[in-house]
Write a sequence for this structure.
């Protein structure tokens, strides 16, 4: 049936010999599946893991609600209580309301079996069945890092965050965080300043922005990146939602970086989740007397995180290839070099191309130190690597 040029789709639900009719705009047959998946997620007792078991057994979501579908009671974790809840007719009205919100607000929905579902998150057993997003998120770039930390971030933490993202900018990574106060918003701001795609993972629906003070950043984030959540438009930023949000932050990324954290906090939960997903975790160290360095220092001390002091540490451990970056590294017009970098640059400028070992010897630096210095200089566009471990000044 049509209405003003729109194709409308009608679903009839047979529940105990009573029919319930729901109608919504149809853009593709996918909407029918989405309707039933939304309904499934509103069934009491059904979480992401149980939902995936049911959807694996019933590739067509509608068949889950068909009383004639056999074998559901044989699925591990599915009992008579849950089977009874599948007959709850109120879930269809809730699914219809959410589907209307999705269509009216141009929300993108990613199903966990779809190709456009974030690849790394897909491999997490407790990943959401559905992800809702707004903006211009593109996952073509596989260099994705999450940056988390305390809401009471210090000037030291902000400076570390800004410098790290600025130094990584030539590699064009995607910056993921939780859009909260402190380290989160500092990471988003630094990404915007460096024209990097950034994703804010929310602990509520896409019908609101929380905290409200960050609403001024929303447009910029959606221009190059966007917001992502598993929560419906009826969800508010409840305390327990933030922990669920953290698994998405950890699961989306190749690595999670903790800038500052007390000995307890949400960022440490995110780090533990990342470790559980076999992802890299990095922590920025701080003074042993600083409250918001205790969490980072403990992660490093217990070998739950790699020590991170500069961008070179991250690039080395993740084995990022500078030659394949989408943004070419080029010399800046005005480059600020650290004293160690200036010493190496002057040496190469005077002597021409030299081998890494010889540079270390003549400049009086250990090999591990000279490697990091040269990598930072390469990112700044003042030296280039040559075959045979040679380097030359640009």
């Amino acid at each position: 049936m049509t209405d003003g040029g729109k194709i409308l789709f009608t679903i009839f639900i047979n529940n105990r010999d009573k029919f319930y009719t729901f109608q919504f705009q149809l853009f593709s047959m996918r909407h029918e599946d989405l309707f039933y998946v939304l309904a499934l997620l509103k069934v009491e007792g059904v979480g992401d893991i149980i939902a995936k078991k049911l959807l694996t057994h019933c590739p067509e979501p509608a068949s889950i609600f068909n009383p004639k579908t056999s074998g559901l009671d044989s699925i591990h974790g599915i009992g008579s209580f849950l089977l009874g809840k599948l007959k709850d007719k109120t879930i269809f009205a809730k699914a219809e309301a959410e589907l209307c919100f999705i269509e009216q607000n141009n929300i993108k929905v990613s199903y966990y079996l779809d190709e456009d579902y974030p690849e790394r998150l897909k491999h997490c057993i407790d990943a959401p069945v559905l992800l809702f997003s707004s903006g211009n998120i593109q996952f073509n770039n596989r260099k994705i890092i999450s940056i988390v930390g305390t809401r009471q971030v210090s000037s030291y933490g902000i400076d570390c965050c800004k410098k790290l993202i600025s130094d990584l900018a030539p590699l064009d990574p995607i910056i993921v965080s939780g859009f909260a106060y402190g380290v989160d918003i500092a990471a988003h701001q630094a990404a915007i300043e460096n024209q990097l795609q950034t994703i804010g993972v929310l602990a509520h629906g896409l019908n609101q922005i929380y905290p409200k003070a960050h609403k001024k950043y929303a447009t910029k984030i959606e221009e190059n990146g966007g917001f992502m959540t598993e929560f419906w438009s009826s969800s508010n930023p409840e305390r327990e939602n933030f922990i669920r949000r953290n698994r998405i932050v950890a699961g989306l990324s190749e690595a999670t970086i903790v800038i500052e954290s007390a000995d307890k906090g949400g960022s440490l939960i995110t780090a533990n989740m990342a470790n559980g997903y076999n992802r890299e975790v990095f922590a920025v160290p701080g003074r042993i007397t600083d409250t918001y360095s205790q969490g980072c220092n403990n992660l490093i001390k217990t070998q739950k995180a790699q020590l991170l002091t500069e961008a070179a540490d991250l690039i080395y451990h993740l084995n990022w290839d500078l030659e394949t970056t989408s943004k070419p590294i080029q010399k800046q017009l005005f480059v600020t070099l650290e004293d160690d970098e200036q010493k190496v640059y002057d040496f190469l400028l005077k002597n021409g191309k030299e081998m890494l070992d010889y540079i270390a010897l003549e400049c009086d630096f250990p090999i591990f130190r000279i490697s990091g210095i040269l990598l930072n200089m390469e990112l700044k566009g003042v030296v280039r690597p040559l075959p045979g471990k040679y380097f030359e000044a640009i």
About this structure: The first helix runs from residue 30 to 41. The chain has a mean pLDDT of 87.
